[in-house]
Amino acid sequence: MAEVSTGVNGVTLDIKDGDHHMNHNNLPPKTNQDSDCIISIPFIQKVIAEVLGTYFLIFTGCAAVVVDAASNNAVSHAGVSVVWGLVVMVMVYSVGHIPGAHFNPAVTIAFATCKRFPWKQVPAYLAAQILGSTLASGTLRLIFSGTQNHFAGTLPTGSDMQSFVLEFVITFYLMFVISGVATDNRAIGELAGLAVGSTILLNVMFAGPISGASMNPARSLGPAIVSSQYKGIWIYLVAPTCGAVAGAWVYNIIRFTDKPLREITTTGSFLKGLGLSRSGSN
């Protein structure tokens, strides 16, 4: 039996000895167009996981905000910061292996601009994230009604430009960390949730009193839709998206090598390796 592979789609023909007829029992493999079909069971599972992940993220974080406001700062600002950091870490470890654990339109768009996420899946992911955020905000609105009903969204306390710049910087910082721990195979992937959650905690700790430390368009848009409060919403749609795209691209620019850490360490220091390669080329 001989195998003949032709073309980019890997078409394979099985030919028996003494028989020049094609074996029709062996169907050709799926083409790239077939495999690129966006509607599939795994993709639907990813979208559902993205909805659930965003729902629990927004529900837990915004619940801390509402409870703190309704109970005369019983949670405290530090407590709210810890809650946001912990819930991000928990959700990354819970469903991060299914959809990639974006939970954030800015992250999804940033990955797409760097060709680390297919553009054709971006609309579905954005819709899932906004849906999860809106459902979570609606749930909180039903639970905390009357005197306990407090706006869980984000509002600039200073000027719009101050909040815009702050949101840009902290989202840049967040996406820079995400790119390092999630896309670089030299990083310790098991610590991705801890690193991202800690970054969220730090950002909310110092930026929360100024801009609300959104870093996530869905985090601000969901509560705004439920409460019909859109003051300054453009800040939380534009600044985090621009910051995330910039953070992802800057990390890609400074990415030194694609080799994993274990390959570098097994052959000596990286600088030594560069020296050997240069001497060999001479």
TrEMBL record:
PANTHER family: AQUAPORIN NIP1-1-RELATED (PTHR45724:SF13), AQUAPORIN NIP2-1 (PTHR45724)
Subcellular localization, as worded in the UniProt entry: Membrane
Spans through the membrane: 47-70, 82-103, 124-144, 164-182, 194-213, 233-254
NCBIfam families referenced in this protein's UniProt entry, alphabetically: MIP
GO molecular function, one term: channel activity
Keywords: Membrane, Transmembrane, Transmembrane helix, Transport
Topological category with respect to the lipid bilayer: Multi-pass membrane protein
Main localization (coarse): membrane
CDD domains cross-referenced by the UniProt entry: MIP (cd00333)
Gene name as annotated: AQU25
Name the UniProt record assigns to this protein: Aquaporin protein 25
One Gene Ontology term, aspect cellular component: membrane
Keyword Phosphoprotein on entry: no
Family: Belongs to the MIP/aquaporin (TC 1.A.8) family.
One Pfam entry name: MIP
